[in-house]
Amino acid sequence: MESDRPQLEFPPLTILYCDEYLVAVDKPAGLLVHRSDATPGDEPVLLRLLRDQIGRFLFPVHRLDRPTSGVIVYALDSKTAAGMNKLFSRRQVLKTYRAIVRGWMGDDGVIDLPLRERFNEEWETYEQASRSLQPARTRFRTLARFEVPWPTGQFETSRYSMIEARPETGRWHQIRRHLNRVAHPIIGDHRHGDHRHNRKFAHEWNIQRMLLVAERLEFAHPHTQVALTITAPLGPDFHHALQLLQKGQA
User: Fold this and answer.
1) pLDDT tens for residues 140-169?
2) What does the pLDDT read at residue 159?
């Protein structure tokens, strides 16, 4: 279960792309994509908000974690949904994310670490978990590095990186878990992150959200085959964090 679940009211969703087959929106951080058995009945969910906003039935083809913002696309009919599902399953959708992480990452590289399925996390034995590992690959590129005068542990300063991440597989919380596994957790990730640094951003700068944005989706339209690139803005919270990191550098 996610621990970062603020009770928010959401304005009308920003539509990033729409035609007779597809609609893509900028999902706000903190908004659930769809309802589950554990979702309170009065909690807003993206699927219903968007359905009510455009007055169309929606077919989910992928999802984003609750604390992640950015591009999410829905099909408007079952045939288009089948086409989009085929693109995702064949890894013919290029997904690009932007994140701010703890520490200075290398210039670029690939995190190639198998991951377990979601529902095995809590109860599997080590032997069972080893059998349930699935291949998982995430490419990354470092866009900027920062150092701020916040003492952390034995260090007099704290270092951070802004990175671009491109998951080549689609495992549960893949980017978040991969970055945690290589000791560069995403700031604001309350499940897989570093709580000391999360608290610093929250207490010093009032940045409460996870700094991960699904920035871009690229794929061939399932009907026209025209190449589509759908981009979401980083958003005010992400830009605010960048400005503060730049100003606060040691």
Assistant:
1) 999 999 999 988 778 889 999 999 999 999
2) 95
DSSP state of 75: E
Number of H helices, E strands in the chain: 6, 10
Domains of the chain: 14-247 (3.30.2350.10)
Longest dimension (CA), the chain: 57
Report the alpha-carbon distance of residue 79 to residue 90 in Å, rounded: 17
Identify the pLDDT of residue 120. 46
What is the spatial distance between Cα 133 and Cα 116, in angstroms, rounded to a whole number? 5
Q: What is the H or E stretch that residue 195 is in?
A: helix 195-205
Q: Give SS3 for 79.
A: helix
75-92 burial by CB neighbour count: b if 16+ within 10 A, else e? bbeeebbebbbebeeeee
Retrieve residue 2's tokens. Answer: 């996610």
Tell me, what's the pLDDT at 1?
Answer: 44
Its pTM stands at: 0.89
Contact 36, 1 (CB under 8 A): no
Q: Is 52 a catalytic residue?
A: no
- What are the residues whose beta carbons fall under 8 Å from the beta carbon of 120, sequence distance 6 or more? 128, 129, 132
What are the pLDDT digits (tens) for 74-129?
999 999 999 999 999 999 999 999 999 999 999 999 999 999 876 444 444 545 55
Q: Which residue has the tokens 């969910």?
A: 45
**CB-based burial label for 163 (10 Å; 0-12, 13-18, 19+):** buried
Q: Would you say residue 64 has pLDDT above 50?
A: yes
Contact between 187 and 198 (Cβ < 8 Å)? yes
Active-site residue identified among 4, 26, 65, 194? 65
